[in-house]
# Entry
Amino acid sequence: MATTSDIRNGLCLNYNNDIYVVTKFQHVKPGKGAAFVRTKLKSITSGKVIDVTFSAGHKIDDVRVERRKYQYLYKDDSGYHFMNMETYEQVFLNENMLPHPEFLKEGDSVDILFHAGNETPLLAEMPQHIVLEVTYTEPGVKGDTATNAQKPATVETGAEIRVPLFINIGDKVKILTETGEYMERVK
# Structure
């Protein structure tokens, strides 16, 4: 058991018979009254985000998780298959356990969080950014570069993103995996 003073970003806890991860928290000490902690909790199973306020000193049931490095192998009807880089043990995850599976390409490594008590996979964490090659995009029109205009582009995994007009087929681009936004062109 932990208390509200142990709350931090990334902490996993049992709440309402589900496992949640703390995505944001704020400790508040008003001028009048007792202190409390405002949190945003994201359900690991459904992805639903809820706002929860705990009073100071409230006991919370934290969940011990282990982070392990896995390599993405392939996708089939049963899900996304990954291999442990040390033991070569394979595990598969459902699509809802991956934040943005459209950016995964074979050979990429991800961190998979496991419930330490019963060894079940909870979710996968993608790298913060990923470099992919543009396989299709319309050519940019010369003279349209004065504004921050963007055009659609398809990358090697099949995902569609928005890129600046100067990006061409064959260019490698760095993408922020959390939002799917273009960051920069990579040489």
User: Anything to note?
Assistant: The first strand starts at residue 2 and ends at 3. The mean pLDDT is 89. The chain has three domains: 2-62, 65-125, 129-186.
